[in-house]
Amino acid sequence: MIQTVLVPPTCGKTPIVFTWKIHGILCGLLLWAGSLGSQELPRVHLLGTGGTISGGSSGSLSASEISKLVPGLDGLADLSVEDFATIGSSRMTPDLQFRLARRVRALFRERPELSGIVITHGTDSLEETAFLLDLLGVAEKPVVFAAAQRPPRRSDTDGPRNLLNAIRIAAAEGMRGLGVLVTMNDEIHGARDVRKTHSIALNAFASPWVGPLGHVDGNRIYLFHRPARRLELEVDRIEPLVTLIRLFAGSDGSQVKAAVRSGQRGVVLEVFGRGNVPSKVLDAVREARKQEIVVVFTSRTGGGRVELGSETKRIGVLSGEDLDGLKARLVLVAAMGTTTDLDELASYYRQLSGELETAVGN
Ligand code: ASP
To answer: Could you report the per-residue pLDDT of 209-223, keeping only the tens digit for each?
Structure first.
């Protein structure tokens, strides 16, 4: 016989007159449905590193605090948060970047249930951290950088929307296999090509010559193309002693000499046009090469490949192809902790250039 009892509020807040049996079944169903609902939400981990998105000079917010400013998070992802650092990104260092890469790797290893990882970062050096992490091969699932040009306390801040988009991208299974990504202003960029091109504009981030990989429109993600030019290196250490020098009319090689004196192991030069250097600079480069310093030429124009002349080839200068100086430098940072072999380093730049293995015709 079924007993009718006053059911205490064990699975709901309102006491209801019910039967133990029906109550038991309903409770079970509710708990199962509830757990099913939360299991279905993709798990995303947020690593905060600082920057304007978390307050900048007007006082830093923690990763947890900035996540609370994001509209519409409920029902999108089950978010966990962690403060990795709280710095303006002009204070980012290779050591910190490498530690961040290791943290991302460890998170994916320790928490296989994660769909993706979002990293908030200052805009100033974001393109560097994103590309180094991409080179270090951390993005077995989406790793998405988000930042802001305007701090969270401003009514027209862009941070919460950028962060919401980043969480959406990190949660999307279809965004796997694209490497490290950056989202700003509803656009999605690949780490290899993205650059900050303006100090204050909301659309400051662009991928010159190749365009964004995709776009976020409300709750839909549109993928335009997949990055064809990527390189992933498996390394245990990096080489932070790599510097970047930009040539100008009148460059006399003194910056190259200073770099050698200061103990740099690699020097990237943003040279003229397609690879032109004044003779005094070439003399300084020759001296640097005698001391086995790795020298890479890339174009200061911001686009297009460098083609090396016969003398620069003879002394062992490498072409950074069409990478800009910042990105060409990071290839050495990532690789030179493990190898200084020039052929190997040259092959990395070629892989990142998109060059097909065989030439076609003459
Ligand atoms: N100073 C800031 C930074 O950390 C600028 C920004 O985040 O937009 O890079």
So the answer is: 999 999 999 999 999
Intrachain domains 43-223 and 242-353 with the same fold? yes
Locate the domains of the chain by residue range: 43-223, 242-353
43-223 homologous superfamily: L-asparaginase, N-terminal domain (3.40.50.1170)
Q: Report the alpha-carbon angle 9-11-15, nearest 5.
A: 25
pLDDT score of 311 more than 90: yes
Rounded mean pLDDT, 121-136: 98
Residue nearest to atom 1 of ligand 1 (CA): 88
Indicate if ligand 1 lies below 6 Å from the C-beta of 319: no
Can you give the pTM of this predicted structure?
0.89
Q: How far apart are CA 62 and CA 145, in angstroms?
A: 16
How many C-beta atoms lie closer than 10 Å to residue 221's C-beta?
A: 18
CATH tag, 242-353: 3.40.50.40
> Which residue(s) pair with 243 in the sheet?
267
- Give Dmax over CA atoms of the chain in angstroms: 102
* Per-residue burial over 272-289, b = 16 or more CB atoms within 10 Å of its CB, e = otherwise: beebebbeebbebbbebb
Ligand 1 mutation pick, 58, 87, 124, max ligand atoms within 8 A of CB: 124
